[in-house]
Amino acid sequence: MAAMAEGQRDVFVERLKRIEKGGPNTIGELLIGPGDVEGPKLKKQRKKLRLGWLGDIAIMPFAAALGAVAMLSGRVGAYHLTQPGAEGVAMVTSDAMILMTDIGIALTLALALAWCFKLGRGLRLVALVAGFLGVMLFEAQLIEQAPDAFVALFSETYVSAMTTELPRTVPGT
Question: What pTM, to 2 d.p., does this model score?
Answer without folding.
Answer: 0.63
